[in-house]
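Async update (no meeting this week)

Hi team, since we skipped the sync, here's where things stand on the single-chain job. The sequence we agreed to prioritize is pasted below, unchanged from the tracker. I ran it this morning and attached the output directly underneath so nobody has to dig for it. Comments welcome in thread, and please keep replies under the output.
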Amino acid sequence: MELSPLTAVSPVDGRYHSKTEALADYFSEYAVIRYRVLIEIEYFIALSQAGLPQLPPVGDDMQASLRRIYDPEVFTPAEAAKVKEIEKTTNHDVKAVEYYIKARFDELGLGQYKEFIHFGLTSQDINNTAFPLMMSNAISEIIIPAYQRLHGALLDLAQELREVPMLARTHGQPASPTSLGKEIAVFVSRIEEQLEVLDNSWINAKFGGATGNFNAHTVAYPGIDWAAFGDKFLESLKLTREEFTTQISNYDNTAQICDNFARLNTIVIDLDRDIWQYISMGYFKQRIKEGEVGSSAMPHKVNPIDFENSEGNLGIANAIFRHLSAKLPVSRLQRDLTDSTVIRNLGVPFAHTLIAIESTLKGLGKLIVNLDAIRADLDDNWAVVAEAIQTILRREGYPKPYETLKALTRTNTHIDEKAIKDFIANLEGISEDVRAELNAITPFNYIGNSAAW
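Output:
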């Protein structure tokens, strides 16, 4: 059966292909092969500048020709298929890349230097540089911009609703009122903080030979500081070299990045659930799109499916992010192969994250604030001003103000505006100015500084 969005096993490449196809340039099998070619080519160019007697510096024109080998316009999926064909013989994916490049060197007249391709390296020097570079580029070019769009949409919504008073709920029970905009701003702030953490982070790569000591490099050219060479080479790719490693990356930094995104995603799960609840409470209505069906059985329903879709995808993303962060840093002695199959799934949690962000954005775009429902809820919960009243009475030295308000409000009798006004009218030993101050408090204006941010 031919692979297509209809036949793909994973919904990432099937049902949600249109939302995730941009990630194919970073995490597909084609992308892995292209990035391996990129690392091998850039390593050869850097090696030619290292002063090796047998390898003269590659000139600018030849460097440009070499870099065209991995240019996406030249290195198409058809070229990657040639590498896969070589792999059928080598049964080794990185060696297949080396042989592919050697053939290109022959075409460029560089045949006499082709043994300097992959010189002194092990496969993981290529893989543990290619995957971090792929991840770095995907994060900066696709994932962070998606999160910034979400941040911007939330900020706009928070500002629009800044002065809308809303009944808060702690433990699911009516609590001191707040501003609907401020409650959205909580998520704006949390996302900002985690994006700042990511902005200040770095991405590591491993580059040090078969067991991390530049053994082969040092025996061939003992006079060169290979650690300094490795540092400089990875810096040219905007990566940081891990100084002490086994054959493979320590993956601690990759784990940190995965954990960072799991935290970001957890914040969005919290947002999805809150917005879902506000819709359930009637605080938000949803724009209806002509022709859409909410339920196959109940014609009246308009379900908050975008937030549910987002929550589900973020759950999958975080399960994989956390597996990556827990598994990758663990390897038996100097290397086992368990990381190899796991790291190939690096793009999967980013894909589910991207699906989720787009779903949340779609859901936010459908929201219509329902002021009538919000105001009705406030008007039905005058008991929440008890905190304000007892606080002012404390200020005035009134005896046992908390206990007095507790006796008023913690009964099975509904506390409405009249009950509060009657209570204030019957307070003894307070000035008329204080009585007026208490009477001015309503669930609609008792919102502290929640609209002042």
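Quick observations from my side:
The mean pLDDT is 95.
The first strand starts at residue 165 and ends at 170.
Reply here if anything looks off.
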